[in-house]
Amino acid sequence: MDENQTNRIKQILLKIGHLVGLFIAMAIICLPGLWIVLSSLRPTVEIMAKPPVWIPESLSFDAYIAMFSGVGQGGIPVLDYFRNSIIISVTSTVIALAIGLAGGYAFARYRFRGKTAIFLGFMLTRTVPGIALSLPLFFVYAKLGIIDTHFGLIIAYVALNVPFTVWLIDGFFRQVPRDLAEAAQIDGCTRWQAFWQVEFPLARSGIASAGIFAFLISWNEFALASQLTRSTNSKTLPVGLLDYTAEFTIDWRGMCALAVVMIIPALTLTFIVQKHLVSGLTSGAVKG
Amino acid sequence: MRGWKPAPHVLLLLPAFVVLAAVVVVPLLLSLYSSFTPFRLTRPETIYTFIGFRNYLRLFADQEFWVAFGRTVLLLTIALNLEMVLGLFLALLVEKATRGQRLLRTIMMFPMMFSPILVGFQFKFMFNDNIGLVNNALQSLGLTDRAIPWLIDSQLAFTSILIAEIWSSTSVFAIFILAGLMAMPREPLEAAKVDGCTPLQSFRYVTWPFIMPFAYIAMTIRSLDIARAYDIVKIMTDGGPAKRTEILWTLISRTAYSDARMGLANAMAYVAIFLSILFTILFFRQLAKARQQIGAEW
Q: Could you report the per-residue pLDDT of A203-223, keeping only the tens digit for each?
């Protein structure tokens, strides 16, 4: 066999190997999620069937209907949890974004002493494991009487999100050339006007993705929420999911349906921002 | 001129300082203090009894604590290393794809959107010994005729948790490494090829140093949120059965809320906090080093 031919065969084999590898990787990534969606649509008998039923015989939205019609399956008030999750996530995101905007701008535009140390300090507050932070917060909140309230969780989540929003927004403002704001100021803008009319619009899409990132963290948070909430007053969806396992017989179908409800907002939002998210985190950290 | 006017950056950073101080720093100081007391939630007056380092001494003599600690470090070490390697492979696979890269990138982000609690639930469902996808598939394919107790056997449960953790976080690495690969200039690679490098050599000496900082950003971000494994373990096994999968964080929550021994739990929490800080500082330093290394080219 001449060298040319062996080379060509090698190339084809490499290509097939690549495609197979890619396919397996994507299958592993997608399969668990798809299985959850499928299970939420199947009747419980089919999920529990032995030997397993692989091809679903009937699909229905019963689990979702049961969940959203007042008190859902097993007496779990999904609607209340959903409302709490929305209120808490949105409010804490807006506040964290405002604070992060101020902080990120300061890091990107001003020189001051101990800048790196302060930045590192902010990040270190983020490393505290949620469960470790929940101990003193639980105690303080109990004293203040704000356990099981929206307010308590909101301020906890604001603190959780501020370090990341500062990091991201700092990165986005660095991408906006400094000269632009200076030029605007020379043309007679005040610093405030230069910020709102020149720099802010340029960094806007990045800031939006920082907001979505913060929203997702609040939406998904469990360790703090599981200790600082008690009832339908403030329980969020991740804590609500645990309600299903508290009983001896797990309602798998109901859990799957709740999981789908939790993932849809996260899914939609992440698709919108995926591009900005990576560029924000890397530009802040790599070009330092 | 009336009065002293603070510098603008001080004003801008003030809200962040206030929130972080109020919600993180002050409560942590409180918990530091209470780790020196025999504080129990059921007896609030115990918070005023000072017992020095007795909680810590008790902890360091406690075998159960060290087992959980060791298991946590083991879990993190294996998980982070595997995530890094798998993320690198995934990024290379996607980068090599000629068509549909956008779609592939989107699919790759999929696990990132799952909250840890959902990841835990999803794998609890799949690894269920009776109705789980994994056992059903193995049995249907005839690979085994009995139900494998994935979440009950201690070794298997640890592996299952590891798989869940890796599934959820590999994409973080893949995304950042892919960003690095895409940002890489083509010329050095071509130059290496002209100079007669094998593909492996040009990967090792050209591509790898370049994507290193990106890998470390991913590491740093991951290490900031390292305790999210708590959510996964909590829902998958809750440290059980019989504490066979107990990790540091589930042990803390059990000691604090089930046994109501807040003082002792706070002492444990401080160990956990130092562990997290250690991991973060480790990666931050690597990041700075990697950045310096390629600094000239940027």
A: 877 788 788 888 888 888 888
Closest CA to A119 of A141, A100, A95, A145: A100
Chain B residues closer than 8 Å to A279 by CB: 179
Instruction: Kindly list the structural domains of chain B, giving each domain's residue range(s) and its CATH number in brackets, ordered by start.
Output: 62-295 (1.10.3720.10)
| Interface ipTM | 0.82
Q: Residue A119 and residue A103: Cα distance in Å, rounded?
A: 10
- Are the beta carbons of A214 and A165 closer than 8 angstroms? yes
pLDDT digits (tens, 9 = 90+) for B218-238: 887 787 777 778 888 888 887
For chain B, the residue count is 298
Are A50 and A188 in a shared domain?
no
Q: Write out chain B residues lying below 8 Å of A28, CB-based.
A: 167
A47 and A74 fall within a common domain: no
Q: CA of A123: which chain B residue's CA is closest? A: B224
Residue B154 touches chain A, beta carbons under 8 Å: no
Peptide bond preceding A43: is omega within 30 degrees of 0, i.e. cis? no
At residue B43, φ and ψ (nearest 5 deg) are -125, 85
Distance of CA B227 to the CA centre of its chain: 6
Q: For A250, list phi and psi in degrees, rounded to 5.
A: -80, 130
